[in-house]
Amino acid sequence: MAAPKKRKRYDNIGYLFVLPAFLFFAAFVLVPAVLTFRLAFYDWDLLSPNMEFVGFDNFVKLFRDEQFTTVLGNTAYFTVITVLAKVGLGVLLANFVATRVKGKVGQFIMESSLFMPIVIPMSVVVLVFNKMYDTEFGILNGILRLVGIDPVGWLSDPDVVLNSIIVVDIFKGIGFFFLISLVAIRNVPKAYFEAAEIDGASKPRQFWSITLPQIGGTIVFLFITAFISSFQIFDPIYIMINGMFGDTKITISYMLWQQAFFYRDVGYASVVSIVIFLIVMAMTLLQFLLPKVLVEGDAYEA
Amino acid sequence: MNRRFLKTCAAVLCGALVVAPAACTPGSLGGGGSDAELVFWCNNGYLADFEVRLAEFTKETGIPVRVEGIQANSWGELVQQLSTSAYSGSLPDCGDIATEAMASLVAADLLEPIDSYLARDEEELRDVIADMEPVLYNAHKYDGKMYSLPTTWNNMCLYYNKNVLAAAGVTPDDPNYPHDGWSIENFLYCCDKITAKNVVSGTGNKYGYKIQNQYFLTIEPWLNAYGTSVLTEDWKDTNLDGQAAKDCFSMLHGMLNNEDVTKQYSPKFGGTAEYDLFYSNRLGFMANGLPYVYNLYTGGFNNSAGNVSKLKEGYDVVSFPSVDGKVHTTIGVGACPIFKTSEHKEEAWKLAKFLSGKKFQTEFMTENLWAIPVLNSAIDILVQKGFFPENGKLFAESLQNATMVPAPTAYSAVELEVRRWFGGYMANTDGFTLTGSGNNSLETLAKTIRGFLGA
What we know:
The complex is a heterodimer.
Chain A: H1 2-39, E1 42-43, E2 52-53, H2 57-64, H3 66-99, H4 104-119, H5 122-133, H6 139-146, H7 161-186, H8 190-198, H9 203-214, H10 216-231, H11 235-241, H12 252-262, H13 266-294
Antiparallel strand pairs in A: 1-2
Chain B: H1 2-23, E1 38-43, H2 47-61, E2 65-70, H3 75-88, E3 94-95, E4 97-98, H4 99-107, H5 115-120, H6 122-130, H7 134-137, E5 141-142, E6 145-146, E7 150-155, E8 157-161, H8 162-167, H9 184-198, E9 207-209, H10 215-225, H11 243-258, H12 274-279, E10 283-288, H13 291-298, H14 308-314, E11 315-318, E12 329-335, H15 345-356, H16 358-364, E13 372-373, H17 376-383, H18 393-397, E14 402-404, H19 411-426, H20 442-453
Parallel strand pairs in B: 1-2, 1-3, 9-10, 12-14
Antiparallel strand pairs in B: 4-12, 5-6, 7-12, 7-13, 8-10, 8-11
């Protein structure tokens, strides 16, 4: 009789442990999210004490806004390329380090140098790239001139600028994807590779048929993480472009910031943030569900 | 016991959920700082300067000041940050604010009118006010109420590189050589000579002028040069769809785009800072205010290394060229307004008086030339500096025929929208046009701005 009582008290203490985290979550995520949803139905300029209820007007405005379509296109372009590059290159580099780099020193150098950009603040990375991209004095155009190629307006040519920022984002983010992939690859039982070697499988074949299926769950996680971070990209767009080319090169998070704090159209900005939330949520669910449908067997464990 | 425990948890959670949104409700504004300490906001770039100078204020008055730097790339961004701070109840007692932000803050009822303070301290301020130009004194008057004394001001002019002009064969005896009251044609002639004569494929490219997508630095001064402005004089309508504005944008677009690459007058947006190009004798003209005088001096421009004659041989300043042959300048005026939420208004007013006062203006404002002092006596000291450019009087005398940078209540939206269109048009982005009535045409921009202004 005494034993169940003890267990019950123990369970209740568990709530107490969860409470601080939940309070934090409620104050900084849940409540702001609810308030944001509420604000989407109001016209408010951020400063005025009065808000005007406008029903679905802000949602209607979004669907008629050509800027939103352009910005969504930019964001999709940016996201697709950076997600594929960060996850793809991260896995390939991890596989290279795990299988080809011999010796602890070599591995340490590779791991450290690839992970280094992660610990550098994005603003610092952007400032360094700004110097490298400089049209007149930058090292990239310096190299191009040396080999007789005309300089490129890395940050001044509207056709190039978004790609320049994509490179910055990949450079900054790839370390994380590399490291997670590396850990996953190292956890694949060596016996599989030894058996494959005995059967005469080549390295690429081993990568394709053993490594990739074995780290499927990790790859799904990486895709979700990459998508969330890329879709909400803001810092380099703000520092490197800052609306320089009209709205044709900005992304959705930048548009949200503009609408909220420059146009002070908080209701409309809230609608944009809801759209971001819904897209990220939908894509995350899709990325969770799709592999379960496509991949059979025990290899996939999300 | 268990039920009581759960009730306690529920009560704490409910309390937190109630308090969290309440803390984010508009109107929950609080004053900044502790009992005896003033909180003063300024742009991050001026943080160190203000810390040093306000320490002097503290020494004089015994009032401690905590200077907080705000990271903002434009006044629009500063307004944005102040808005956010107002919402979260963390406004300072006072701050270094400029024309661009004042109307927005006044409209939001965040600033304290200072008429009663001025009336009370009339005797004390008589000499100081008499030493100011009326246009500066009245710069922060809205709907008949004063919100701040002026503390600093700045204007836009063109710095020209004498070495670059000489290398291009444009000499002082040439009628096109930069001089106050010169024409757009004179300016384009110089740019043409500079660019056409020196372009080589490689690192030696030289440019006439670097166009920047900036409201105060580029767009408004050039519109003024064409006898117009972003907004009408009362800031209640826009001039952007007028012919003068079209002519202005067309000229700038031509400089950036329409010429053959080998005759391109201006490097594209972004890329290289105009100061670096100017410093390395690869740019003929750059727009800026007084601060670059000090930067060029301390940076040892023209291998001067403290030799002021050598420095002056390398550059000078001139007004923007104009279509009517007059000197036009765009000005912005600094202020130290007191926030309504301040619990130390008297102390903040003392600080405001200190910033507009004789000591600050004549001793500190003439030190490193971050802006033009508001007292004529301080300007006199300034222009006598050995390293001042030959035509430095332009900084002091440009109040005549000056246009205040248009900064209505919806300033941040106006600035952003104008820069958005300007950037799109200059970069030849699809749909951004000077004519027509498409979504990104100049006509639509004007309509949008009228919407912001309620015109």
